[in-house]
Amino acid sequence: MIQVRDLEVRIRDRVILHPLNLDIHPGDFWLIFGPNGAGKTTLFRALAAQIQPAGGRVTVDGDDVSRLSRRALARKISYLPQFDEFNLPLTVRDILLAGRYPYTPAWRDYTQEDLARVTDTADRMGLLDLLPRDINTLSGGERKKVMLASAFVQDVSTILLDEPHTFLDPLSVDRLNRSLGRLHESGRTLVVISHQIETLLPLATRMAALRDGRLLYSGPCRFDPRLFETTYGIVPAHWRTVLRPPPPREA
Amino acid sequence: MNRRATVILAVAGIVVLALLAFIGIVPIDPAALFQEGSARFIFWKLRVPRTLLGFLAGSSLALAGFIFQNLFKNSLATPYTLGVSSGAAAGVVLAIKLNLGFSLLGSNGIYLFGFGGAMVSVFLIMTIARAVRSFSIYTLLMTGVAINFFFSSLIVLVQYLFDYTQTIEILRWLMGSITPSGYTEVLVLLPVYTVFVTVAVLARKELVIASAGDQFAQAKGLDIRRFRILMFLVVSLVVGTVVSFVGPIGFIGLIVPHAARILNRQHYGSALVFTVLAGGFLLSFTDFLARVLIKPAEIPVGILTALMGAPFFLMILIGSLRKDRR
């Protein structure tokens, strides 16, 4: 379980996240949404102990994330950042094997078991042919799949995905969502930042809305055009009918 | 490159280097190696240590470049990017100015000052990074660039202000040359090199992860900050030692790891092995050319590495760009 208590993040003197609380229970599927610059990625980076909060704390199973070693944290949480830019050539196998890093002692090489696990995961996700390929030569959709596979290999209970749907066509979005659904069914905790609200609503169990570094809502996942409007300042055209009752019919 | 190709490269390299040691201003008859005389002296006391030092220096510089390119996620990084060599150069310039070419504490004064200068660079970078509490790629690279410029200007200033003969000596050192005095340099560098290669092999999974960027590395459980500091210190110690012996020989640390990556795109381990072997062979071979091309004079090897390295590098680059057009 991940507990966020009075978490506040500042960069220099600017408040990026105002103190907020959040409880992520095992098996939850969280949808986090909000406009650009709302602090969603900052929240993730705080959960993954990649930034030092100005106040409050984040605990995973009772342990403060800032006190856990990187390896120990990587055995519990897998964080998939929004941008995965690789300058140097790296094979898909290298990326997937990195998922076994938290379990491999320093100065030791990966075991045969790790290699088998990578091959097995790649096989299940239809990535077997891509294993020897350079990640830089893959399409956006293929890359997302590889990153998701690396989280599988990492064998964690909680996965944080930062806008996994960007650059994906509708079919790829659908495929990714199916993968997320299967991950959730397998008992993992998912926290997903996305603007793909409509497609994720049927899958997610909880949701949180952020705007200007403030948590506007956190709770059960539900279709709520009004919350959507306060969060983004706009709603999709086909949702407006729900917001405003239709004008009375003329007799 | 598979295992067989690696073995062929290793064996061919050793055979070629051994044969080249017989060629030079004084050609050596193999039979003379076992008789008293100048041929035996030239071969065992001059050519062999020179070939060995060339190999160790080239291999170290290439490996240093390979590690820095991964560590800084940048294929243009070289062992000198962080100002370690210009620090060493400033140290050497100081030694020449102060006439410390003679023996100092049983070692050559120039070497000690070179190494000391390199460590001053390291100290400055560490101090600045600590002061701003950031060991990010950006902090290290930018600090390194500034230190590079500072020391380079300092060297030019000293050259401008002082004696002409000393300026020639400084210039000569800056061009880089492999002129060991017997086996001393080899015996000092060998243990340093052995530790360096061992560290690079043991840390190869960390280097792979580091090359994917800080966020990825942290998400996979690597303490990237600590790893970067550790590798920076190890590489700097090695580069400081190498540069104080042979001068700031350029290009090897840039082109060899790059070629290794292009040729071994599929496999990281073999790219590392290729870097270590090719770096050593290339510098030794170039040094052979440096001593025979205009004999009885010699060309400073640093000039040749850049002169030959640049077109060779372009060839590999164009070849790889043609192949996958990405």
Describe it.
- The complex is a heterodimer of chains A (251) and B (326).
- Chain A has two domains: 2-76 and 156-242, 3-Layer(aba) Sandwich (Rossmann fold); 88-155, no CATH class.
- Chain A has helices spanning 40-47, 70-74, 92-97, 112-124, 140-154, 170-185, 197-200, 225-232, 240-243, and strands at 2-11, 14-24, 29-33, 55-60, 63-64, 77-80, 158-162, 189-193, 206-211, 214-220.
- Chain A starts with a strand and ends in an 8-residue tail after the last helix.
- In chain A, the strands form two sheets. Chain A has a six-stranded mixed sheet, sandwiched between helices. A four-stranded antiparallel sheet of chain A has the order 2-1-4-5, with helices on one face.
- In chain A, 31% of the residues lie in helices and 24% in strands.
- The longest helix of chain A is centred in the last third of the chain and has 16 residues, at 170-185.
- Chain A is built from nine helices and ten strands.
- Chain A has 251 residues and is of the alpha/beta class.
- Chain B is an all-alpha fold and 326 residues long.
- Chain B has a single domain, classed as ABC transporter involved in vitamin B12 uptake, BtuC.
- Chain B has helices spanning 3-20, 38-71, 84-97, 109-131, 137-161, 164-175, 184-202, 204-210, 214-219, 224-246, 252-263, 268-292, 301-324; strands spanning 103-104, 107-108.
- A two-stranded antiparallel ribbon of chain B has the order 1-2.
- In chain B, strand 1 (103-104) and strand 2 form a beta hairpin.
- In chain B, helix 2 (38-71) packs parallel to helix 7, helix 3 (84-97) packs antiparallel against helix 6 (164-175) and helix 4 packs antiparallel against helix 10.
- The longest helix of chain B has 34 residues, at 38-71.
- Chain B starts with a helix and ends with a helix.
- The model of chain B has no long low-confidence stretch (mean pLDDT 87).
- Chain A binds chain B through residues 48-50, 69-75, 78-81, 84-91, 94-95, 97-99, 101-102, 104, 106-107, 109-110, 132, 134, 136-137, 150, 154, and chain B through 69-70, 73-75, 202-206, 208-209, 211-213, 215-216, 218-223, 261, 265-268, 324, 326.
